[in-house]
Write a structure and sequence with these properties.
globular, mainly alpha, Hypothetical protein af1432
Length: about 180
């Protein structure tokens, strides 16, 4: 990692996880394999900020630790990239195991416990809402096609939907880091 840490993908240690590395990596990983409209890629860092904002709408009483769960839900992608769901399914449990171990190390590094069922469902719901929004605004999906893959759209306030506009890499990285620090105290 740029921080100088060496992260073992098969046995990741929380001691080797740094938020600066996560923000740096996620700001440089393109969602939708880069197949999005706009002058910049839509990064996983931006997607994570969008999911966290949506999470605040669907769980308005969520505390900082719960909001961090939304923000960090795709954090393992800072080292493994954003693999599309059909490929993840084809790769199977090997990939899922690596991703799960990384997320466990990330949670431990920042003092977070694994989410309970209510929060886990809320994260998945927020992720689907974000994917639908991204699919129709950025990735060229028709509304009915996006609904088939991600479910019916749910209304979100303009301040949330405005997050689905691609930013330059440095801005995505800075905004991700700022939000993490605001939530982590």
């Amino acid at each position: 990692m740029l921080s100088g840490r060496r992260l073992d993908l098969l046995d990741p240690s929380p001691l080797d996880v740094e938020i600066a590395d996560i923000a740096h990596g996620l700001a440089r990983v393109a969602r939708w394999n880069g197949q999005t409209a706009g002058p910049h890629v839509f990064s996983v860092a931006q997607h994570s900020l969008l999911v966290e904002a949506i999470g605040g709408e669907i769980l308005p009483a969520a505390g900082a630790a719960q909001r961090l769960e939304f923000l960090l839900h795709d954090a393992p992608e800072y080292v493994v990239g954003d693999i599309i769901s059909p490929l993840k399914a084809a790769i199977g449990d090997s990939y899922k195991g690596v991703e799960r171990r990384l997320l466990t190390a990330i949670r431990r590094r920042f003092g977070l416990e694994a989410p309970g069922p209510v929060l886990a469902r809320a994260v998945k719901r927020a992720d689907r809402i974000a994917a639908h929004l991204e699919a129709t605004r950025l990735a060229g999906f028709a509304a009915d096609e996006a609904a088939r893959y991600f479910g019916r759209p749910e209304e979100m306030p303009p301040a949330v939907t405005a997050l689905a506009e691609p930013w330059p890499t440095a801005e995505a990285q800075a905004r991700y880091l700022a939000r993490f620090h605001a939530l982590a105290g």
